[in-house]
Amino acid sequence: MKGMGNMGNMMKQMQKMQKKMMQAQDELFEMEFEASAGGGMVTVKANGKKEITDVVIKEEVVDPDDIEMLQDLIIAATNDVLKQIDEKTNETMGQFTKGLNVPGLF
Asked: What residue ranges are annotated as transmembrane (predicted)?
């Protein structure tokens, strides 16, 4: 019955790791990310949950004859901010999954 103590110990360690993961995820969700395009003409902010929280468009970039440029700037800034969130998520949560091969974990 010596192996049962090891199993209990392992369960405690897993619960501890799970608690740290949840804490790290909560901190990540609270972070704010920002990206801009067109030399700061369009700025997009998002939180760690990948929710866009703000879009700022400078007046001088609004040209009724060139809506496509404005759309491209918004797309570029949005994609950049989402990429930042993905990178931070991988950096933050990757510490918990190193060495584990669990599909779909993160």
From this structure: none
